[in-house]
Amino acid sequence: MDFSTNFVSKRIALIEETGGKYREFLQTLTPHYHKVWRDIVFGYLMLALSLYIAWLLQPGAWFLIGVPLGGLLIGYWVAYIQLFIHEAAHYNLWHDKNASDRLGDLFIAWQVGTTIRDYRATHFPHHTKIGTAEDTEASYFNALTPRFILETLTGIHALRVFLARRKSGAARGANRSWGPLLRGVAVHLALLGFLFYMGAWAPALAWMGGVGVVFPFFATMRQLLEHREPAAFDANGPTEGVTRIFGDGPVASTFGGAGFNRHLLHHWEPTLSYTRLKDYETYLLTTSVAPLLRERSMTYATAFLHILKADNKKVPHG
Questions:
Q1: Other CB atoms closer than 10 Å to residue 110's CB: what's the count?
Q2: How far is the C-alpha of 258 from the C-alpha of 260, rounded, in Å?
Q3: 106 and 137 in contact (C-beta within 8 Å)?
Q4: Is residue 1 very low, low, confident or very high in pLDDT (cuts 50, 70, 90)?
Q5: Can you name the residues that pair with 234 across neighbouring β-strands?
Q6: pLDDT tens, residue by residue, 291-309
């Protein structure tokens, strides 16, 4: 297993290296809940702005620009908001766990027709099974080829993931109700009905394209860029887990919002709120793991080009 994901031995070394101060420092990294909700509100404001832009571009020939541009923006910001379902899965939306789950269901999970509890059941095995064939979040198993990109843009991959998760949940004995999915669909249909009723055809069509096409594409690409390393696959599947750091630029902080831009650090200490990962990184850069952090740091664009080139030169899996 790659060192960046199997942090147990290095964590012990850090405790010894710092004379136990590593554990003491972690205890100071309590969540900043106001930052969590500031970022969620920001996502919804950008989502509303995206609808407004599509509406402004609705008249005449501008319609041909308003729908795809609006869809691109809506899909991007829905993907951003959905990143907080991960923070909710780790009980970091509020200091009370039950309240955190309820808030996550109300403001985030509805968009994808699930609940925080159901998502948690799928997500937690990802931390223990990453880099193995049993990983429950396995989009990074797919080679970054033109065929796979087409599958993500046509909904084929999203449908495959949905069916696999339902099957996986049933196999683990999870009681997956159709209620959350039906409620989510109902909210989307109500929003579309309102937009069509108001004559906002461009925003309505943009919402359909953004939620149905653009959002799944961005979500899939993000996970793939975080975890895929073509050299870490053989004929039988993944041979190790890989995680990365992507920095603090405007793209990294939104495409990789809610701490996904420091996903390596999240896998090292999964209970930490993303609002403290930068503090955690600053501390680690003063320790013996600093060279590894620098080695694993790159931009999303760099990771995309690296993986695209390697996967299309020699597809190692799938």
A1: 18
A2: 6
A3: no
A4: very low
A5: 237
A6: 989 999 999 999 999 999 9
Measured between alpha carbons, how far is residue 185 from residues 2, 94, 167, 178, 257 in Å?
40, 27, 20, 11, 25
Q: Which DSSP string do the residues of the chain spell out, in sequence order?
A: --TTT--HHHHHHHHHHTTTHHHHHHHH----HHHHHHHHHHHHHHHHHHHHHHHHT-SGGGHHHHHHHHHHHHHHHHHHHHTHHHHHHTT-SSSSHHHHHHHHHHHTGGGGT--HHHHHHHHHHHHHHTTSTT-S--GGGS---HHHHHHHHTTHHHHHHHHHHHHHHHHTT----SHHHHHHHHHHHHHHHHHHHTT-HHHHHHHHHIIIIIHHHHHHHHHHHHH--GGGEETTEE-S----B--SSTTHHHHTTTTGGGHHHHHHSTTS-GGGHHHHHHHHTTSTTHHHHHHTB--HHHHHHHHHHHHHHS----
Give CA–CA dist 217/35, Å, rounded.
Answer: 27
Q: What is residue 250's predicted lDDT score, i.e. its pLDDT? A: 95
State if pTM tops 0.70. Answer: yes
How do residues 44-95 score in pLDDT, each as one tens digit?
A: 999 999 999 999 999 999 999 999 999 999 999 999 999 999 999 999 999 9
Report helix angle 33-56 to 201-209, nearest 10: 130
Distance from C-alpha of 17 to C-alpha of 22, rounded to nearest angstrom: 9
Length of the chain in residues, anyone? Answer: 318
Copy the structure tokens of residue 130. Answer: 């990453």
Is 182's pLDDT higher than 50?
A: yes
**Quick one: pLDDT at residue 166?**
64
Tell me how far apart the alpha carbons of residues 238 and 232 are, in angstroms, rounded to a whole number.
Answer: 6
d(CA 177, CA 157): 22
Which residue type, as a one-letter code, is found at position 9? Answer: S
Q: How far apart are CA 258 and CA 194, in angstroms?
A: 30
Q: Could you tell me if 31 and 275 are in contact, meaning their C-beta atoms sit under 8 angstroms apart? A: yes
Local confidence band at 2 (pLDDT 50, 70, 90 cut-offs): low
